[in-house]
Design brief:
There is one protein chain. This protein has 13 helices and 15 strands. By secondary structure, the chain is an alpha/beta fold. The protein folds into 2 domains: about 170 residues, Aspartate Aminotransferase, domain 1 (Alpha-Beta Complex), CATH 3.90.1150.10; about 250 residues, 3-Layer(aba) Sandwich (Aspartate Aminotransferase, domain 2), CATH 3.40.640. It has a 7-stranded mixed β-sheet with strand order 4-10-9-8-7-5-6, with helices on both faces. The chain has a 4-stranded mixed β-sheet with strand order 1-2-3-13. Strands 11-12-15-14 form a 4-stranded antiparallel β-sheet. A hairpin with a 5-residue loop joins strand 14 and strand 15. Helix 3 packs antiparallel against helix 10, helix 4 packs across helix 10 and helix 12 crosses helix 13. The longest helix is centred in the C-terminal third of the chain and has 22 residues. It is globular and about 60 Å long. The two termini are about 40 Å apart. The structure holds pyridoxal-5'-phosphate. The site of pyridoxal-5'-phosphate has 15 residues, from helix 5.
């Protein structure tokens, strides 16, 4: 190889030759290293990383406290399997997670750890079914819950996730509120009641699973009154309410968890992604009496709650507290939102600026009466932004939403720089 820059085409060709096309890589880049809110490709070019491994790096790449915790744990034990012997980082982490989820509710909680977000979702459903002895699960259109068979069935987007992969039984979908498209909380509740009347009676429903802010579905927030009504309805019918906080958790929306904005207490909460700064770990945290429903041996997984990942997660939680990262995320979110609203006044193709905390997105639309989704424009803007040094990805059922998942440790100057790159990208694409 003559120069580092020449490596990229070779590596991308290697990628195409040995990785199946079903696994898409959003940007034609091969990265070499990362720090904070920045990554560098193998050619040495620097990018602002406003994707963070899809909402995993809320604490930023290579945080020194996380690295130190993992290195220290590596000297002791890397893997033991909690089904065989217990170890301290697992025990400390489940206790911390129970405290964070229970908050001041005074309700006894328990937690169990897994490896991926989809696995946490699967197990939350298993626990809910064991507790209620009912089969059905309701999820939302536009929701995303992972790529396992149950995960894709729960997911409320057909392509590319479902294809002809088959479906898990007893899953029903209902619409999610969408303020931009005029679909209110009342309409969504009416649709849910219709589902109860026409398809599955509430006494057959084990669980309703909801993202407080839909992630892959387009950064739509569930209004506070909708989450509260859902809590009341599920209590009335003995249905387990599962908050899927895989993307919204750990400060992304300005609080530890998205459900906390509504002041409700879900029965079960799924966590993953930014819990451990890129070490693969997930969990289900919930009311102790529900969590204890599966009989001994019903829960587990060889790698669930791996010791290195637990050590990373404990360092993440400590660092959030020590560096007040929740407040920092709120402040950065306000700055980014103001910048995006300013861009909206210049570019009418930005139909909506939305989200919560530092979980923000813009919806790109056509200049027609229906404000139709414009996925082609979105892709052009994303590509142009990358050329300018900013990494972002799309979301939304129609893939016309551009989302920002920058670390909570991003510098204010980096937020401004990202806005500047985005503005130039929009002007170039739209000129
Ligand atoms: C809300 C939500 N649930 C579940 C998942 C699945 O997580 P994983 O990809 O770790 O299996 C995701 C991933 O994006 C997610 O955003």
């Amino acid at each position: 190889m003559n120069s580092k820059c020449e490596e990229t085409p070779y590596l991308l060709q290697q990628r195409d030759q040995f990785v199946p096309r079903g696994l898409v890589t959003a940007h034609p880049l091969v990265i070499d290293r990362a720090q904070g809110a920045e990554v560098w490709d193998v050619g040495g070019k620097r990018y602002l990383d406003f994707v963070g491994g899809i909402g995993v790096m809320n604490i930023g790449h290579n945080h020194p406290k996380v690295l130190a915790a993992v290195q220290a744990q590596m000297q002791k034990v890397t893997h033991a399997c909690f089904q065989v012997v217990a170890y301290r980082p697992y025990l400390d982490l489940v206790q911390r997670l129970c405290g964070l989820v229970a908050g001041s509710s005074g309700i006894a909680h328990k937690a169990v750890l897994f490896t991926s977000g989809a696995e946490a979702v699967e197990n939350a459903v298993k626990i809910a079914r064991a507790h209620t002895q009912r089969p059905a699960v309701i999820s939302f259109r536009g929701g995303f819950h992972g790529r396992t068979l149950l995960g894709t069935t729960l997911t409320g987007m057909s392509q590319p996730y479902k294809q002809n992969f088959g479906m898990a039984p007893e899953v029903f979908h209902t619409p999610y509120p969408n303020a931009y498209r005029g679909f209110t909380s009342e309409m969504a509740l009416q649709a849910l009641n219709e589902l109860f009347a026409t398809q599955v009676s509430p006494d057959r429903v084990a669980a309703i699973i909801i993202e407080p802010v839909q992630g892959d579905g387009g950064f739509l927030s569930a209004p506070v009154e909708f989450l509260r009504a859902l809590r009341t309805l599920t209590e009335q019918h003995g249905i387990v309410l599962i908050a899927d906080e895989v993307q919204t958790g750990f400060g992304r929306t300005g609080k530890w968890f998205g459900f906390q904005h509504a002041g409700i207490q879900p029965d079960l909460v799924t966590v993953a992604k930014s819990l451990a700064a890129g070490m693969p770990i997930s969990g289900v945290v919930g009311r102790a009496e529900i969590m204890d429903a599966p009989a001994p041996g019903g829960l587990g997984g060889t790698y669930g709650g791996n010791a290195l990942a637990c050590a990373a997660a404990l360092a993440v939680i400590d660092t959030y507290e020590q560096e007040q990262l929740l407040a920092r995320g709120v402040k950065l979110g306000e700055r980014l939102r103001q910048g995006l609203v300013r861009l909206q006044t210049r570019f009418p193709q930005i139909g909506d600026v939305r989200g919560s905390g530092f979980m923000l997105a813009i919806e790109l639309v056509k200049d027609d009466a229906a404000r139709s989704p414009d996925p082609e424009l979105n892709q052009q803007v994303i590509d142009e932004a990358r050329n300018g040094g900013l990494l972002v990805i799309k979301c939304g059922v129609y893939r016309n939403v551009l989302r920002f998942l920058a670390p909570l440790v991003t510098e204010e100057a980096q937020v401004d720089e990202a806005l500047d790159i985005l503005e130039k990208a929009l002007s170039r694409v739209l000129s």
